[in-house]
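seq:
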Amino acid sequence: MPIIKLSVSERRRLSVFITCLLLAVVAWVFATLSEKYVYTTRQAIVFKNAPQKRAFRPLQTDTVEISLQGTGWQMLFSKMDHGSRPIPVDLHTLDHNDYIALNTQLERINRNKDLNHRIIAFNPDTLYFDFTNRLTKKVPVLPLQAITYKKQYMVTGKVTVQPAYVVVNGPGNVIENVNHWLTDSIKFTDVRQTINTIVRLQPVKSGNLNVYPKMVQVRIPVEEFTEKTLDIPVKVSNNTHYDAVRIFPQKVRVTFTVPLSRYTEIDENFFEANADLSLWHQGYSVLPVKITHMPAYCKIVSTVPQNVDFIIKK
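struct:
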């Protein structure tokens, strides 16, 4: 039950008063936010037009405190905008100087169409850099693989990277120790067909290095393999003193894996088995058999026998 009872006319007057009060508050807010203010915020910076013949390292963080001039509305929305673009800082004067005076770039930065507020000052207003001699070097790309293959499937040839080399640019004392560049890990499981993929290079750990390009294409040929067995004649090597050397057996049975697509073309001419006679002078009574030549896409499973007997005719 209400404590204060108002008549119809009193309620009408109260409603008019509250409406006028709200309109006055809204008008005051609009008037206040429409005035000019100076406020500060932190903003990321990015560099452009970096010197080509000098390697540099910033001696401060990549964010600066900026003083802005704008309306209260702009100040209000700037507090809500966390995705504003970084401020571009031109480094072309670093060809002759070791510092950048940000206040000299105010006019250019304020003309940037992406900035809705006028910047009036930076803190710090000068960026300092450490310099060393800059070198450029081409290094090979090495793919970092984390791949598992389906049973009986394996890599059937050379892994190719395009481009095979990347250009690394940076301080001479750092570049001298860079001999290759790794890709991000290439991850696949239960692979049973050739892999063609675009992969990023590992990111630069030092802000003073540049790598180009940032991505490469990697091709890993994959095929199903099966086993095949051939009888391979054994050749005797390092026989410099004797006219005739006979070995027993004269052939060894080699079992190896081979891609299905090349199964029929592989014969004993693709292999070479060798027995080194010089081992006899080291006390060997039998000669171990080594497979000294075979296709790169084949893998030996077994060689029977692994040793051969020999007879020397003087």
